[in-house]
Amino acid sequence: MPAASFAFEGAAVVVIGASRGGIGAAIAHGFADAGAKVQITGAEPEPMPEEAERFAYAQLDVTDTDAVRDFADRVPRLDVLVNCAAITQRGAEMDPAFFAHVLDVNLTGSFRCAEAFHPALMAASGSVINIASMYARFGSPRNPAYGSSKAGVEQLTKSLAIAWAPDGIRVNALAPGFIETEQSARARQDPAFVAGVEARTPAGRWGQPGDITGVALFLASPAAGFMTGTCLPVDGGYSVV
Ligand SMILES: NC(=O)c1ccc[n+]([C@@H]2O[C@H](COP(=O)([O-])OP(=O)(O)OC[C@H]3O[C@@H](n4cnc5c(N)ncnc54)[C@H](O)[C@@H]3O)[C@@H](O)[C@H]2O)c1
Prior knowledge:
single chain; alpha/beta; Rossmann fold; 7 helices; 15% strand; binds nicotinamide-adenine-dinucleotide
């Protein structure tokens, strides 16, 4: 019977997209607090100061297949890959070129990273955690590319879970609700939108990046050893109303 342990001493973890102090950063700190050796990446030249102090950092564009493969080649061992990199821009996603770019970052980028780390994950019987969204299932009129990409991430999670189960790799996803991060900063400038989210969310508040951390650790832990291909909502109940 596997222990329900959330200790990750000696584990090697990479969090893609942890540079802006949001969900990726919170997950990185959670794994490090649990004993893991954590590396992070982001699109920016430098991460936020709190992450710069604690983690090895690589600037990595997830739309660049060669760069992603080079980065993966420099990571000798990997137990957990967390795919957090994503973009969205309200009102700009009806433009076909930008639509394609959002898909390239959010969906193909998650695939690129998983594919590049497949050998290392197989060697460690590791696991992948993808970050989806409630917009994988809800329509998103102002963010159609983002919603499509996140639906794709949920489907990719299922497909890779099946494809890589024989390799001993588990692949799961999380679907955060409304979380206070840089990505949601623009939407949060609209008081009516902020109040609407609070009113509909049974938990009565927006989420914090730290609300996602424990669920990510759980999915990577032996406690979730019989879970693969799933997508867990972490949304204060928003999606069940
Ligand atoms: N904030 C929310 O309310 C919310 C809700 C649901 C899902 N999510 C998802 O959670 C994840 C983390 O989001 P966040 O809110 O912490 O956002 P964030 O903007 O703080 O972080 C996004 C990260 O993606 C990286 N990134 C952007 N473009 C990239 C590129 N081309 N190559 C490599 N990295 C790139 C950024 O550098 C950053 O590190 C994302 O997948 C997001 O879609 C967020």
